[in-house]
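Materials and Methods. Structural model of Transposase. The 115-residue sequence of Transposase from Roseibium algicola was retrieved and submitted for structure prediction as follows.
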Amino acid sequence: MRDLKDEIEEAQAKVAHLRIRAERPSARLEDEFALEKARNRLLTLELRNLKQGRDVRGSSSPKGNPGVVGSRQHMRQAPFAKRTNSEQLPRTAREKAEAAFAAVQGIAAEKKGRV
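The predicted structure was written out as tokens:
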């Protein structure tokens, strides 16, 4: 657990350093990509840390108690409507962004073809 916190601190320092480099007027695209990569790494470590904390808290709780963090009873309380094959599952932010980008590219291609 302590190693993970050390890694998080190192990742935070790296993000701070890369943010300064990426915000300079002479920053290159590579600097922005490095910052994004470091931020993703930091978020991954923080998520892992949160999940480990939740697992530790949930393992000591009695099973089946709906108010306890480790139990999944609260998720089962709300009735869900069945989905048909024609309905789409909720998309991730990445899928939505890719669809929007494809739509923009399609519009640009149509405009280019008309001119």
